[in-house]
Amino acid sequence: MEATNTEEIPLRHVEKDVLIPKMMREEAKERCAERVEAFNSCCKEAGFFMVFKCREENSALKECLTQHYQDPAFFEECKRLYIQEKLEFERTGIPAKNRTQKLPTSM
Q: What pLDDT, on a 0 to 100 scale, did the predictor assign at position 5?
């Protein structure tokens, strides 16, 4: 079942328009981590004046994120990851966030 083609699996409207874009936003933030950190530190230092002082960092962050959002290959990669998680959930019944938790070693 691992070799299942992503084109064969039908996706619901909410998966295509909400869940996969959410995964894309999270992954894009990780890929643009340097710019996110630069913008966050600028905002912390600038306080109320962040709107004026952090324009350069904000535009660099927007550019990086938009580049990922508009990339069809990035969408397909996130779609593939989403389908893998969906198939794993259907197989095990355990959500992805709970699969990463460690089990207690002693009872």
A: 57
